[in-house]
Each structure stands twice: as C-alpha cells, then as structure tokens.
Amino acid sequence: MSDDIETKLSAARTRLILDKPFLGALVLRLPAKAVKPERCRTIGTDIRALYYNPEYIRGLSLEQTQFVLAHEALHCALSHFARRQHRVRNRWDVACDLAINPLLIQDGLKPPPGILLKSGFEGMMAEEIYPYIDDDTEEETHDDHFYSADNRSGDSSGGQSENGDSQPQAADRDPDETGSGAAPQPLGETEREQLAVQWRQRLAGAAQQAQQAGKLGATMARLVEHLLQPQLPWRMLLARYMTATARDDYSYQRPSRREGNAILPTLKSARVDLVVVLDTSGSVKDAEMEEFVSEINAIKGQMRARVVLHSCDAELCENGPWTFEPWEEFCMPANIHGRGGTRFTPVFEWLEREGLCPDLLAYFTDAEGEFPEIEPGFPVLWLVKGRAQVPWGQRIQLN
Predict the structure, then answer these.
(1) Cβ–Cβ under 8 Å, residues 366 and 283
(2) From start to end of the chain, where are the E strands?
(3) Which CATH architecture has domain 235-397?
(4) Over the stretch 25-71, which tens digit does the pLDDT of each residue have?
(5) Reported confidence tier of residue 235, pLDDT bands at 50, 70, 90
(6) Residue 381 phi/psi, 5° resolution?
(7) Domain map of the chain by residue range?
(8) Beta carbons of 98 and 78 less than 8 angstroms apart
C-alpha cells in the first residue's frame, strides 16, 4: 500500500517538473518522508525535508497532491521560517498560508479541501497580511510547520546545543523516532541562517531555469524579483528618497583673498522643499502619525530641508498648513484634526493653487480614497498602511 503512495508522490513531482518547472525544481529539493499520523496531521516541512501522513496523501487526487507539495516547497523558498521575527506564531502561520495559496491557484493548481483562502489578499506578502489576522484567531493551516522552535509543546528549546544548532540526543528520543518514521526537529539559529541562504539560491536557480524554458508566470516572476532584491525597512526607504532629493552640486565660485588664489571645487547643498501630508480620516492612529513625524524629523536633521506640513481627510484641515524651517524641529501640531472621509484631491488642488512644486511630497495614508486623475509634475511618495494600491507615485509599505 505504501508503494501506491510513493508512486502518487513521484507522479505529482514529475507532473510539476513538466508543467510547472519553477515549482517542480523547488519540490525536488525536499526529500519526502512518511511519518505516523500522531506526528503529522496531513503534510508539513521542517525546511530540511517534507513529511507526510500516508492516509492524508491517499485521500488526495493527483492534482491536489501537486498543490500540497508545491505549498510546502514555497514555505521553504519564500523563507517563511526565517521571516517571522517577533510575530505570534499562529498568526504568522495563517498569514503565510494566505499568501501562498492564492499564488498556487493563480498558477493553475487545484487545492485540496480545508486550505486557508480569503479574497483581498492576492499578491500580498505574509508581512502585509499578518496585521489583518486576529490575535485570537481560531483558523489553522492545513499543513504542519515544523520549523519553529516552539513547534512542540513543553520543549521550546527544540533540543538545541550550545551553539544554537538543533541536535537532539539519541537517548532523549522515542525509540520509534529512529528510522523512516523519525519526527522532524526544530531549527537551530545557525542552521536557520544557513538554510535561508541555501533556499534563496535555490529560488534564484529554479526561477532562472523556468524562465529559460518560458514557463515562469508573471506573478511568480514578480514575487521572485521582490524576494531577491535587498529588503529594507520603510524608515530606510524613506531616508533614501528624502536624501536623494538634496540638490548637492559643486561650486567653482572665486574664494575670498584670505583663502588664497586657487579655485577649488566645493560641495554646496541647496535647500530641499518637502511637503508632508497626514491622512487624518480615522484609519490611521495618532500614535502611528506621531511615529511617522518623528522619523521625518530625524531625517530632516541630516539635510537642509524646509518642511510644509498639512493634513487632510475629505477636506484640508482648516488650521494648516504648518511650515518648519531647516533649523526648526519638525513636530506634530496641537491643533491638527480630521476623522472624516478620505480624499487626496484637495491636497494637490491646494499645491496647484498656491503655485507650490516641492522636491518631494510624502503622504502618510491607508491609500483608500479619491485620487487625482492626473499625476503631478513632482515626485510623490505614498507611505501606505494597509493593502490598498496607488495609481501613480512611489509606494512604500509600512506594515
């Protein structure tokens, strides 16, 4: 009977290699191991290998088997085991599945019953989905994620050695854990880092092979490109865009006689005109706006920036705008208010009416509102809290 299960798994892998070479190449990196039902409900991975309950695989069709194999391989390739950081494990696991499943369905794979799937999360990363998962969620993934150190109750250390590697002692194991039915062990810190690099290389290689074969879909290609790019926090991205607007240039102006006769190039920086707009419609919390303003102030101190602050919900705040010269601290005004609907058009109408053309407009918002139809002639940076998209400008994800 086990031969039938192994034949089904082999056929599913072969079909993936032929039809979906990107996913197939990733699946081949995971050796499959059968385990007892009490150790694995359905199917799962510890990043080193794939573990499956034979009874679960027996109840799936060949197409559904392809789905669950690809699902486990993507957990590894997308480094979900290394990206959780401070997040609550159950919420993170749910967010990871909600990120993976739409990708596989969009790629033409047939899901088995019981998978997590919600509309509205298509194209989002697990980090973006996580804030929308309730703290006390009762949702569960259809598979087992064995790669967390707290994956077994009563043993949060996962049998780690002093150097952080996962090395359970043979004497501490259940006798049945030796051999083909061995239970997966949690990852140690050193091994986690090594596997993250290894799976990143595998992801790049699988994508290159599939692209050469002409069988890498646009959605998967965008995902791979995003994951292989250096990942920077929003504060660093904001600093990069702000400092890039500083107009540094060389001046060959004749020096004073006290400095000598030689004319040497000197670096001169013109003032940067920055407009900052806060969305006060109620979807953004006061604490979040305070954090954003303090970050702007920290970056402002590194350049000669004149900042004009305004706020807007459905209409501009009647108490604004507030102007901060380069030598003044940028802080939240006491008389800022809002909490109405959301429209972005009033801000751009105000700028046009006043004849203002800033070096950069930074808009802190959830991006759910009315946008102007025409893109302005100056750069716009949208710092977005939530999953809404913007029609133009540069978008930076906050959460």
Answers:
(1) yes
(2) 32-34, 43-45, 50-52, 144-145, 248-251, 266-269, 272-279, 305-312, 322-324, 360-365, 380-384, 394-397
(3) 3-Layer(aba) Sandwich (3.40)
(4) 899 998 988 888 888 888 988 888 899 989 999 999 999 999 999 99
(5) low
(6) -115, 115
(7) 2-163+180-231, 235-397
(8) no
